[in-house]
Design goal:
Elements lengths: L8 E5 L4 H16 L3 E6 L1 H16 L4 E5 L4 H4 L16 H9 L2 H9 L7 E5 L5 H7 L4 E5 L3 H13 L12 E2 L8 E2 L14 H13 L2 E4 L3 H14 L4 E3 L10 H5 L9 H9 L6 E5 L8 H13 L4 E5 L6 H9 L2 H4 L4 E5 L4 H5 L4 E6 L3 H10 L2 E4 L6 H11 L3 E3 L10 H9 L7
Parallel strand pairs: 1-2, 1-4, 2-3, 4-5, 5-8, 8-9, 10-11, 10-13, 11-12, 13-14, 14-15
Antiparallel strand pairs: 6-7
């Protein structure tokens, strides 16, 4: 093995949300598998989630280490322990974003204390200040985009054409000039509506940092998004590297099952249940780690799944915050009613393990990019129900470009009824045709 002094050393700083942390830890393993030294910097609560992941990686011979920096919860006015978006009261999001800027000094102290001697910083786009840190310590900074290249290219074209500036309504559909496919969007779906003005300052900081960064890595692959990757690379002078699907670095069942959190269901029990189902018969339902749907909509979803007469696995995260849903599940004896045909998972699910099981044939997804890529990698048909952020853009890629999914029909965050959900469930068998 090469000496530590001669090895490439990457320093990773992931954003504090499940959809950003998990792929960044996968990327750390990929880099280490190619002989690099990798250091990941995060806060104590987030580090605790990944300690067993890192321990397994180290045991397998990979050179990965985890360094903790304190989260400034008190200074930011956030409840103690709320160091991740999935732990955060919704009203505290602005304070949470403010706290990320406060991490700059403790991060830079690691360099001053000579704790770190990296060859390169790979930071999430939500830490735009790392471009200044990189310049200060004379190391290149590479940005990690947790989005699809399709989404990134759409936003690049928006910045060039400014076509949205002539659109007066947030709900009006328009085309983006330069996009290879004829696809229409609204401002809401592209996060450029008036209701997104509170994030305008952060967007501008990210764009400014992007112009000064050395390059970008994206969790995607050429065969999936070829025209968009090609055009985006041209726009960024070629310094764009596609390193996905990062989740495929998880080869062993335990690595697929525990990617940041321990599954809230007994994994052998889950696999035994899936083994009892017919091939490609199960619909897997998971609307992400930060699902913003109210209990009333989730109850309708449960009724739709029950009435569909199809076997399903339904993952409900954050159920402790949804008192009305939990009350309904108990009072209506829902789990007993679906016994044998449905499996309910409260909390974290071993998603990659479930999607790769032969019994799973359909995936109702919120279209977060990690979930989208995991569904694509598993080769399952998808039903799309985007909620926020880049998810509407990813839905366009899945449904309109790749044609590997069927939309539930949500254009903005609107209620959905049992009847129209069931209509889309019936389309599941047609999704590949």
């Amino acid at each position: 093995m090469a000496s530590e002094a001669s090895q490439v050393h990457f320093l990773l700083l992931p954003y504090l949300a499940p959809g950003h942390l998990i792929p960044m830890f996968d990327i750390a393993r990929l880099l280490a598998q190619h002989g690099a030294i990798v250091t990941i910097v995060t806060t104590p609560v987030n580090a605790a989630r990944f300690k067993t992941v890192i321990a397994r990686a180290i045991k397998s011979g990979l050179q990965i280490r985890l360094i903790e920096i304190q989260f400034p919860w008190q200074e930011a006015g956030i409840p103690e322990g709320c160091e991740n978006c999935d732990l955060l009261p919704t009203t505290d999001f602005a304070r949470f974003m403010k706290s990320l800027h406060m991490l700059q000094q403790p991060f830079e102290n690691l360099f001053k204390e000579k704790t770190l001697k990296p060859c390169c910083i790979i930071s999430d786009m939500c830490f735009p200040w790392t471009v200044d840190t990189a310049a200060k310590f004379n190391v290149p900074r590479i940005i990690f985009h947790g989005f699809s290249c399709f989404c990134l290219f759409c936003h690049h074209l928006l910045g060039v054409s400014k076509v949205h500036e002539n659109v007066t309504s947030d709900s009006e559909y328009f085309n983006i000039p330069g996009l290879p496919d004829h696809i229409e969007f609204t401002k809401v779906q592209l996060l450029i509506s008036k209701r997104d003005d509170d994030r305008k300052e952060l967007r501008e900081q990210i764009l400014a940092a992007d112009k000064k960064t050395y390059g970008a890595i994206i969790n995607t692959f050429e065969e999936l998004e070829s025209p968009f990757i090609e055009n985006y690379k041209k726009a960024k002078q070629g310094k764009v590297w596609c390193i996905g699907p990062a989740s495929l670095c998880n080869k062993e069942p335990i690595d697929k099952a525990e990617r940041g959190k321990t599954a809230s269901i007994d994994v052998p029990e889950c696999l035994t249940w899936l083994d009892s189902q017919q091939p490609s018969s199960v619909v897997y339902v998971c609307l992400g780690s930060i699902c913003n749907l109210p209990s009333s909509q989730l109850i309708e979803l449960g009724l739709g799944l029950e009435a569909s007469n199809k076997p399903f696995v339904w993952v409900i995260r954050g159920v402790s915050k949804l008192e009305a849903l939990e009350k309904w599940l108990v009072q209506e004896n829902f789990e007993e009613r679906i016994k044998g045909r449905g499996l309910l998972i409260r909390g974290w699910a071993p998603q990659v393990l479930i999607l790769s099981h032969p019994a799973v044939g359909g995936f109702l997804t919120h279209c977060g990019w990690n979930s989208s890529l995991e569904g694509i990698s598993a080769g399952v048909q998808m039903l799309t129900w985007p909620l926020f952020a880049d998810q509407f853009c990813n839905e366009k890629l899945i449904v309109n470009v790749l044609r590997i999914g069927v939309s539930v029909g949500v254009e903005v965050d609107l209620p959905i009824t049992t009847s129209n959900y069931l209509c889309k469930i019936s389309c599941n068998s047609q999704a590949q045709k």
